[in-house]
Amino acid sequence: MAQSTTRKKPVAAMIFMGIVSVALYTTLLLKQDEVNSVFGKGGLYAFLPIVTAFVFSYFHGAFTGHFWTVVGVEAAKQKKEVK
Amino acid sequence: MQDIMSNFIALDTITILYLFGVGFVGGLVSGFIGSGGAFVLTPGMMSLGVPGLVAVASNMCHKFPKALVGAVKRAKYGQVDIKLGIVLGVSAEAGVLYGAHIQEKIKAAFGDAGSNLYVSVAFVVILATVGGFVLRDAWKSYREGTSNDEEKAGKLAKWVQSINIPGTMVYFKSINARVSVLFTIPLGFATGMLAATIAVGGFIGVPAMIYVLGAPSLMASATELVIAFVMGLGGSFKYALSGLVDIRLAMIILAGSLFGIQLGAIGTTYVKPFMIKVVMGAIMVIVLFSRGLMVPVYLAQLGLIDAMTDSTVKLLKTTSFAIMIFALLLGAFIVLRAMWQGKQAEKLQQAAGALEHGKV
After folding, report:
1. Within-domain flag for A45
2. Distance from CA of A56 to the nearest CA of B (A)
3. Is A23 part of a structural domain of the chain?
4. Cα-based distances in Å from A20 to A14, A25, A67
5. Is the pLDDT assigned to residue A3 strictly greater than 60?
C-alpha cells in the first residue's frame, strides 16, 4: 500500500460533515418534545428512529472518521496480514 | 399507549455529557473487540431513571448504526467476513427473539427478581467458562512467546472444518475453508440468545468464531460488528414498533461511540491479534465478579436466602456497577496503551528504514 505520508488531510470534508452533524443534533435536542411524541407512537412510526439512526451515523460517522485523520490518528501504514 | 412522554426522561447537560462519555468508551472497546459497552450503558441509563425496556431499546438503537460504521471501517482494513457476519447475524436474530421470549416467561413466572437472577446467573456461568478460557488462551500464547505467530485453528475448529455435510457447506474467507451451516446456525442462535439476555452477544459470538470455526481473532472481532448490526437493526425495529426507543438517548450515545469506534478500529491495525483475546477475556472476567455480587441480592428478593438490609443491597448494587465501569475503562486503557506502543514501534521502524535507505 503505497500511501504517501504527506497526503492532504480532509479538513474541508471534516468541517462540512461536522456542521451537518451539529445541525442534526441541535435540531433533535431543540425539537425533542415533538420528536418524542411522534417517535413514541410506535406502529408505522417505527421507521422514523431507524431512518434517523442511519442519517446520523452517515454524517457523524464521516465526521468522526475525518476528525481522527485530521488530528493524525490513522491506521498503521504496514497493514497486518489477517489471514 | 397511555402516556407516551412518561417513557422519556428530561435531559440536562450533565446527563448528555455522561451518556456521551460512556458511549465513547463503549465505542472504543466495541471497535476493538467487536462488542461491549452495552452491559454498562443499559444499567447506566436505568440509573438516570430511564425505564428498563426503554434503556434496552435505546441501547440497541445506538448499537446498530455504531456497528455499521465500525464494520465499514474495519472492512477497509480487510478484516470483515461479510458472508459469515450475515449468516451468523440472521440466526442470531432468531436467537434474540427466542431469548426475549424466555425472558418474558421467566418474568411472568418469577417476577423482576427471578428475571434478574436468571440474567446474573447467565452472566456468571458464561463469563466464567468462556471468559476464563479466552484469557487463559491469551496468557498461554504470551508465555509461550507465540503471540507474534500467525494464529492457527485449534483442534475443535479443525474438526468442524473437516466435517462435510452435503448441501450445507459454505465457503467463508475468514476461515479459508468450507464449513457446514449446521455448525454456524447454533452459534449464531446462541449469540442472539446471549444478546437478548445480557446485551453482549459478542461474548459468545467472537470466541465461537475463533475457537469453533477457526477464524483469526482480528477477523472474528470485526465480523462480530456485522452480526451486531443485523441483530441491532431487527431488535431496534421490534422495540420501535411499541414506541420504546428514546431516539435522543440513542443518538447522544452514538455521538460519543462513533468517536470511540473509529479509534478502536484504528487500534486493531497496531496490535498483535492476541490482544483482542486479552481485552475481551479481561473484561469478561471482571464483569463476572460484578454480576456475581448481585446474585445474593436477587436470591434474597426471591426468599431463597435470608433478607438483606437496604444498606447492604445498596452497597452491593453500587459496587457491582462500579466494577462494571472499571471493566470498561480497563478495556479502553489496554486498547489505547497497545495502540500507543504499536504507533511508537511503527515510528522506530520507519526511522530505521529511512536510515537504511540513506534518507537521513
Report:
1. yes
2. 7
3. yes
4. 10, 9, 14
5. no
